[in-house]
User: Fold tRNA(Met) cytidine acetate ligase from Companilactobacillus allii.
Amino acid sequence: MAEIYGFVAEFNPFHNGHKIFIDSIKKKYHPDVLIAVVSGNFVQRGDFAIVDKWSRARMAISSGVDLVIELPFAYSVQPADLFAKGSIKLLNELGVNNLVFGTETDLNFKQLATEILKVDTKFVQDYKSSYATNLNDLYKSSGLDILQRPNQLLGLNYVQEIIKNDYNMNVKTILRKADNYSATQIRDHLSNNESISGLVPDITESELDISKSLSWDNYFELLKYQILSSSPQELQQIYQMVEGLEYKFIKEIVNSTDFTDFLMNLKSKRYTLSRLRRLCLYTLLNVKKTEITKVFELPYLRVLGFDDVGKKYLNTLKKNVDVPLITRVGKKESKLLSLEVKVDKIRGIIDDQEQDFGRIPIMEGEI
Assistant:
């Protein structure tokens, strides 16, 4: 039986720590195929990917990944539990039988996930305090504080999804060593026009040179227009717009000079910055609950890139996969990918780059 390894990433941007992670998987586990499910043009914390999904797929394929699949917006811009739900569902559809992720400390994730699943989680949905705070309290009650360990938080959620759905997937880890590689640090360096030499592979520097780097600074005026041109009733239809937040959005946008200022004006004990940032993104992109639900109910596999090993595996996968496998977007595929096409078009207002129609997967020989 072939050993198919898969992992989840944002590569925002791809740095030397990611390269070490991929090399470590190959050295430690010797996978027959290595697959990465990578966030599209928007990332979990409610931000724009610093460069587009095609650039990041090229970075991954050039650095040893055999096959890159897009994690749709409906899953990529979500709290950890839904992010994990979508990621693991896609990896399962891809025939991955070994999930691998990085961790700061060597933990028994399967045992911890099993214990956490036994705990009554109803109070997690109680919005008297923030979702993240409630969830962290739940983890603390199981003897684990992972507020400062995002990889472990996601790892636990991945493993919980495997257990809940009885997926045929082993759990493997790579121990992260203390290093200076941080995507946040690199983005800060870029925004300050500081050198990132030594922090990223040559392919990343090359892609950053030719791709337009985007952030909320580019879109704040568009967000402002969207909010002020909408009625409270229209804003209520936005995904996750709850508890009268539409009125708060209308009030605070008038008094805010930039996106950071707006976020701080919105912030309260009830809502974390990450949740508010995601809600701002849903608002900018006019994302409705029905659009998110559609992706949940009708999953698909969008191929962003592959090498020779990945190409051979795709040919095998086509005969066995139960969901649409998409390498090109035409009229038929655009109906299934309607949310992705919409949000990508709005991203393209600034950089004028087509993200879906006419695009084909990145292939190793082209890099």
